[in-house]
Write a structure and sequence with these properties.
The structure holds two protein chains of two kinds.
Chain A: H1 2-18, H2 20-46, E1 55-60, H3 65-78, E2 83-87, H4 93-102, E3 107-112, E4 122-127, H5 133-152, H6 158-165, H7 177-181, H8 191-228, H9 231-236, H10 241-272, H11 279-282, H12 292-319, H13 326-346, H14 354-359, H15 366-376, H16 381-409, H17 419-428
Parallel strand pairs in A: 1-2, 1-3
Antiparallel strand pairs in A: 3-4
Chain B: E1 2-13, E2 16-27, E3 31-36, H1 42-50, E4 57-62, E5 75-78, H2 90-100, H3 105-118, H4 134-146, E6 152-156, H5 164-179, E7 183-188, H6 191-197, E8 200-205, E9 208-214, H7 215-221, E10 226-231, E11 244-249, E12 253-258, H8 262-274, E13 277-283, H9 287-299
Parallel strand pairs in B: 3-7, 3-8, 5-6, 6-7
Antiparallel strand pairs in B: 1-2, 1-4, 8-9, 10-12, 10-13, 11-12
Helix pairs in contact in B: 2-3
Classes of the chains: A mainly alpha, B alpha/beta.
Chain lengths: 431, 300
């Protein structure tokens, strides 16, 4: 009977992937992803700095020539190509204002003597509209540097200045019992790896939630549709309900995976685009920081968690006779999915809490809770394995139960059956 | 050889008895008629035969053996409400259903094309069910039920909603399948189809078996109570003959309802004494009359 499972998977997959709604949703989402990933670049394109040319900042220094010279020196030394300074020796403010209006300048810096602070002049940035975040940060950093140089003059060596300007590094060390239990693993986590773990955990949780909702409802709707078109009567007399149910679940799972794969390709292609190549680098992240064990455990929990929810959706779909009643009937499962998701999301920064420890052993919440513990905290391997084992046992138990409900429910029409009726009928049917 | 045997099969839904101790046998190469008013228990009986629901009592044997999963390959089923996917291409879904019943993809495709040609609609191969009229949808459902060459075929109201041309087409197909050895359990409430196709029938009334057996024997069991008499001239005082219940004058003569068959001879003698008899027939009851008599009476 196993080749029938393959037949069902193939049929479900083929027909779902070919539907217009699936093609359109996938396409629309792919376009949204593409636009979203290129927005930073596009904004840059539209907010001046065209042709990759540096933004010209005028310098109106009057008597504060020293500051301007040091600023220019700093800019040359830093090698920043986004901004360039243009000195206006003896220029008037009107002249600079005109240049800004003509677009020759992005804006200009005005240095004025500060009576309260003899060491450094007061600096005003003048430009059209608000100063951009990037420029602000850049100018502040540059001026801070210039100030240090000017105050210390020649009393410090270049190395000493560099050492002064270097930010203090603060790294963390986990000395909890959990961490000690894993002394074999690198306990001092690389900060980048932590960020990458955070991204993976976050991403997998969202993926888990959204694909659960989407494919779960798809499964329930398919089952109800088969039931109401009475094709179920032919199917049940052809294949065992267990094969039928799992064929459908796996088929739709593959549909979901296909969609995710398409998005993955779109994301990868966008990252490869010349204008986005520097993106990961800007965040000081590289793919080498991905912690493989987190990813693999995460995917395992994702897949098993999916199946646990999917069998429930199939069971509910089989009890309902009409598609209109479906929304109400799947509510409890949707709520369960929401709870699972929010426990994970809200606990992502407190992976050691009691809540997350307990829920990581409950099969329904384990896919997110255990993921948070693996990715963000420390957890002994045996606990992961127990949680996985519990999850698999839950799939078997609920899969069996759902197949029973499925076999019974699909032949019940009209009003929704009571628990008593269901129980009585379930006893009668073999799967 | 008995292909299908039901032995005191009993089914209850809650307090209500759906099928009460039905027993019947379908031979190989026989079309067996299951008749009854709506809600008499026909569909429940068929679902039990298919293994969709289990009887609460009694046995169902297939070629002498109880139900097993292997049977799915030899059984075909056309549900009363056509069970097909509205939005899936006909070739896709019928080949799929045939494969689920153990056929190879190539064989299923070949068989589907054969039947589409046979029904003179090869262009439906690439169509979707929702594009077809109701009658044509039903033809596709019929193909889906027989595409895997079943040995036992269950047809629930196979001809309802079809035009006369298509009814004849399906009737011819059903007969051909029977001649090739398929055993068919056939439910309907249209008596004329039964009289043409079936040798044996069971009439159900509100879950009980009221009439069962060979159609000819059943008819023989019911007294012939109608005489058709066509004459050249008038026949007077027909209603004064003892045993005559009612006389109905028609264009060419009379339809006379009688109590006992002997009365018919008295009528004939009486008529011949008065005028020339052109036609004289003691009509056997139609199934329709038997059905109405059996099912109608108990409804009163």
């Amino acid at each position: 009977m196993n080749n029938t499972l393959g037949t069902i998977i193939g049929f479900t997959y083929k027909n779902k992937v070919k539907t217009k709604s699936f093609l359109i949703t996938t396409l629309v989402l792919a376009i949204i992803i593409t636009i979203g990933m290129n927005i930073p670049y596009l904004i840059k394109q539209f907010s001046g700095g065209d042709d990759g040319k540096a933004m010209q900042i005028g310098l109106l220094y009057g008597s504060q020539q020293e500051t301007a010279v040091e600023l220019e020196k700093y800019a040359a030394a830093s090698g920043n190509k986004d901004y360039a300074f243009v000195k206006y020796e003896g220029g008037t403010e009107d002249q600079l204002k005109n240049d800004v209006k003509d677009g020759k300048l992005e804006g200009y810096l005005k240095f004025e003597e500060d009576p309260a602070d003899m060491a450094f002049p007061k600096v005003v940035y003048a430009g059209e509209g608000d100063i951009s975040q990037g420029l602000n940060t850049y100018l502040q950093g540059a001026l801070q540097n210039v100030k240090t140089t000017m105050i210390t003059k020649d009393s410090l060596t270049a190395e000493q200045i560099a050492a002064l300007n270097k930010p203090v590094s603060l790294s963390s060390l986990d000395i909890s019992d959990d961490a000690k239990a894993n002394a074999g693993r690198d306990t001092e986590k690389n900060n980048n790896q932590k960020i990458m773990n955070y991204i993976i955990v976050y991403f997998l949780m969202i993926l888990f939630f959204s694909s659960n909702m989407m494919t779960g409802n798809m499964i329930a709707a398919e089952v109800t549709a088969e039931k109401s078109s009475r094709i179920m009567e032919i199917l049940i007399t052809s294949v065992s309900p267990l094969n039928q149910m799992f064929g459908k679940i796996i088929g739709i799972f593959l549909v979901g995976i296909t969609q995710i794969a398409v998005f993955g390709v779109v994301i990868a292609a966008n990252v490869m685009l010349p204008n986005n190549v520097g993106m990961l680098k800007e965040f000081h992240l590289s793919l080498a920081d991905i912690n493989l064990s987190v990813l693999i455990y995460g995917l395992l929990f994702y897949i098993f968690g999916y199946f646990l929810f999917a069998v429930l959706y199939a069971a509910v779909g089989s009890i309902v006779s009409r598609t209109e009643e479906l929304g109400q009937a799947v509510m409890p499962i949707t709520m369960l999915g929401l709870i699972t998701f929010y426990i994970g999301i809200f606990s992502i920064n407190t992976p050691g809490s009691m809540l997350i420890k307990i829920t990581s052993f409950i099969p329904f919440t384990a896919p997110t809770s255990m993921l948070v513990r693996i990715g963000m905290g420390e957890v002994p391997v045996w606990q992961i394995l127990i949680s996985l084992a519990l999850l698999i046992v839950a799939i078997l138990v609920f899969g069996w139960l759902s197949a029973k409900i499925y076999r019974t429910g699909v032949l019940m029409y009209g009003k929704r059956p009571s628990f008593k009726e269901l129980r009585k009928a379930m006893k009668a049917y073999k799967i | 050889m008995v292909a299908l045997q039901l032995d005191h099969v009993f089914k209850q839904y809650g307090e209500k008895t759906a099928v009460n101790n039905i027993s019947l046998q379908v031979e190989q190469g026989e079309i067996y008629g299951l008749l009854g008013a709506n809600g008499a228990g026909k569909t429940t009986t068929m679902r039990m035969v298919l293994g969709l629901i289990y009887p609460d009592g009694g046995d169902i044997l297939y070629h002498g053996k109880p139900y097993s999963n292997e049977l799915t390959r030899v059984m075909g089923y056309l549900p009363e409400e056509r069970g097909l996917y509205p939005k899936v291409k006909i070739s896709d879904q019928i080949v799929y259903l045939a494969r689920l019943r153990g056929m190879s993809k190539q064989d299923a495709d070949k068989s589907l094309r054969y039947w589409l040609d046979r029904f003179e609609v090869p262009e439906y191969y690439d169509k979707r069910i929702e594009e077809l009229s109701k009658g044509n949808q039903q033809k596709m459902g019929f193909i889906a039920a027989i595409v895997h060459k079943p040995q036992i075929l269950i047809l629930d109201e196979a001809f309802s909603g079809l035009d006369p041309v298509n009814v004849e087409l399906l009737k011819a197909t059903v007969k051909e399948l029977r001649n090739n050895g398929t055993s068919i359990l056939f439910s309907t409430h249209r008596m004329e189809h039964v009289e043409e196709l079936c040798r044996r029938i069971t009439i159900l009334d509100r879950s009980n078996t009221v009439v069962q057996g060979d159609i000819k024997e059943i008819k023989g069991r019911y007294p012939r109570e109608e005489v058709i008499l066509y004459t050249q001239g008038q026949v007077s005082r027909l209603d004064s003959i003892p045993g005559v219940k009612a006389v109905e004058a028609v264009e060419q003569g009379y339809h006379i309802h009688i109590n006992t068959p002997d009365t018919a001879q008295l009528i004939l003698q009486h008529a011949m004494a008065e005028t020339t008899v052109e036609r004289f027939e003691i009509k056997e009851p139609t199934l329709n009359q038997i059905f109405i008599q059996e099912v109608g009476e108990s409804h009163e």
